[in-house]
TrEMBL record:
Protein name in UniProt: ABC transporter related
Family assignment from sequence similarity: Belongs to the ABC transporter superfamily.
Domain (ABC transporter): residue spans on this chain: 30-264
Family annotation (PANTHER family): ABC TRANSPORTER ATP-BINDING PROTEIN (PTHR42711), ABC-TYPE MULTIDRUG TRANSPORT SYSTEM, ATPASE COMPONENT (PTHR42711:SF15)
Organism of this sequence: Parvibaculum lavamentivorans (strain DS-1 / DSM 13023 / NCIMB 13966)
SMART domains, alphabetized: AAA (SM00382)
GO molecular function: ATP binding; ATP hydrolysis activity
Domain of life: Bacteria
Signal peptide boundaries: none
Gene3D superfamilies according to UniProt: P-loop containing nucleotide triphosphate hydrolases
Residue span of region Disordered: 1-25
Pfam families named among the record's database cross-references: ABC_tran
Length: 333
C-alpha cells in the first residue's frame, strides 16, 4: 500500500501516513508498552483501573483479534489508540509513530470502525465518504470514494439515502468510511455484534478482502468463533491485563485435553459411577462426554470402566479442544 505524505506538523492535513523511518518496533502495526488507564472517581463511582499495564505488539500484516469478557478493557485500549481516551501512563505507537511524539501521524495511521451504526440517514454513502475525506484533508484528486465503496460492495448504493440501506450495508459503509484516508491499520470494534450468521460471514469476506490488499486488521469480538475463523493471532484481555497473545494455533495447542463422546445403547440420564472424579457430563440426547488428557489417560481405560459397569456402547468419537476451552481456562469464567 502506498503512503505519500503531507509532512507539515502544523498543517491540519493528517491524511496519509508516511512510511516511518525504520527503528525498533516499526515492524509492528501497533505496539503498547505498560499501558495504564485509570478512570477517575466520579459521583459515587470509585476510580477504576481499566488497563493495568498492557504490553502488546501487533505484527504488521496480521488479522489480530482482541478477545475478552465484558469490561476487560478492550474498548479502553482501542479508544486510547484512536485518540478518544487519554492514557494514564505507558506508551503506544501506531505504525511506528508514538502517540505522544507524533500524534497526527499516529492517528492518520489507523481507521476505526465503531460499534454503533451512527450514520446520518439523509446522507448518501458517496456524501458520507466525501465529508470524511474532507475531515482528514484528503485532496479531491486523491479521493477514492467509488473505489472504496466498490470494495465494500456498495458502489450501486453510492447515491441512495443511508436510511434506505440495510443494517449490513450500513456496517460496510462504516468500514468504507474508516478507510477514506488509506490507513495501514483498520480497527473494528465488535464488527458483527448482533448480526445474523449469514451477514457475519459476508462481512468476514469483506474484511478478508481488505487484509488481502495489505491492510492490517485488528478486531475486538465476543465471538470466539469469529476469532477462530478470521484471525491469525489472538490476544486475550482479562481485567485490564493481557493473559495471552499468540498465534491462533499455538493458543489452541495450549490445551491438550480432548473429549471422548460415548453413545450408550440406552441414552444416559445421569453420569455412571465409573466416571466419578473425571470431568464428564451427560449431553442432550443421552451421550456422555468425558474430558481427558491423552498423555495421562488411555481411552481404553475409560471405555473399560464403562463396560465393567454394564454399559453397552454403540458409538464413540473424540473432539479437540477449541478456543472456548482456552478462553475459559485463561479467564476462569
Ligand atoms: N468513562 C469511564 N469511566 C469510568 N469507568 C469506565 C469508563 N469506561 C469504561 N470504564 C470501566 O473500565 C472497565 C473497562 O471497560 P471497557 O469498556 O474498556 O471494557 P470492554 O472490554 O470494552 O467491555 P465490553 O466488551 O463490555 O465493551 C470497565 O470496568 C468499565 O466499567
Amino acid at each position: 500500500m502506498a503512503h505519500s505524505l503531507a509532512d507539515n506538523e502544523d498543517s491540519l492535513e493528517t491524511r496519509l501516513p508516511p512510511e516511518p523511518a525504520p527503528r525498533t518496533g516499526a515492524r509492528y502495526a501497533i505496539e503498547a508498552r505498560n499501558l495504564r488507564k485509570v478512570y477517575k472517581a466520579s459521583g459515587n463511582q470509585p476510580a477504576k483501573e481499566a488497563l493495568k499495564g498492557i504490553d502488546l505488539a501487533i505484527p504488521r500484516g496480521s488479522i489480530f483479534a482482541l478477545l475478552g469478557p465484558n469490561g476487560a478493557g478492550k474498548s479502553t485500549f482501542i479508544n486510547i489508540l484512536a485518540g478518544l481516551v487519554t492514557k494514564t501512563s505507558g506508551s503506544a505507537s501506531i505504525w511506528g509513530f508514538d502517540t505522544d511524539v507524533n500524534p497526527r501521524q499516529a492517528r492518520a495511521s489507523i481507521g476505526v470502525v465503531p460499534q454503533e451504526l451512527n450514520i446520518d440517514p439523509f446522507f448518501t454513502p458517496a456524501e458520507v465518504m466525501e465529508m470524511q475525506a474532507g475531515l482528514y484533508g484528503v485532496p479531491k484528486r486523491e479521493r477514492r470514494t467509488m473505489e472504496i465503496l466498490k470494495a465494500m460492495g456498495l458502489d450501486d448504493k453510492a447515491d441512495a439515502y443511508a436510511r434506505t440501506l440495510s443494517g449490513g450495508m450500513r456496517r460496510r459503509l462504516l468500514v468504507a468510511k474508516a478507510m477514506v484516508h488509506n490507513p495501514p491499520v483498520l480497527i473494528l470494534d465488535e464488527p458483527t455484534a448482533g448480526v445474523d450468521i449469514e451477514l457475519r460471514r459476508q462481512l468476514w469476506e469483506y474484511v478478508k478482502g481488505l487484509h488481502a490488499r495489505g491492510t492490517t486488521i485488528v478486531l475486538t469480538t465476543h465471538y470466539l468463533e469469529e476469532a477462530e475463523a478470521l484471525c491469525d493471532t489472538i490476544a486475550i484481555i482479562d481485567k485490564g491485563q493481557v493473559v495471552a497473545c499468540e498465534p491462533k494455533e499455538t493458543l489452541l495447542g495450549r490445551i491438550s485435553d480432548k473429549r471422548l463422546i460415548v453413545r450408550p445403547a440406552t441414552p444416559a440420564t445421569q453420569l455412571p459411577a465409573a466416571l466419578a472424579g473425571m470431568k464428564a457430563e451427560v449431553r442432550p440426547g443421552g451421550t456422555i462426554s468425558v474430558q481427558y488428557n491423552p498423555a495421562e489417560t488411555n481411552v481404553m481405560t475409560i471405555l473399560g470402566r464403562l463396560s465393567a459397569e454394564g454399559m453397552e456402547i454403540i458409538d464413540i468419537s473424540t473432539e479437540e479442544s477449541d478456543l472456548e476451552d482456552v478462553f475459559m481456562q485463561l479467564t476462569s469464567h
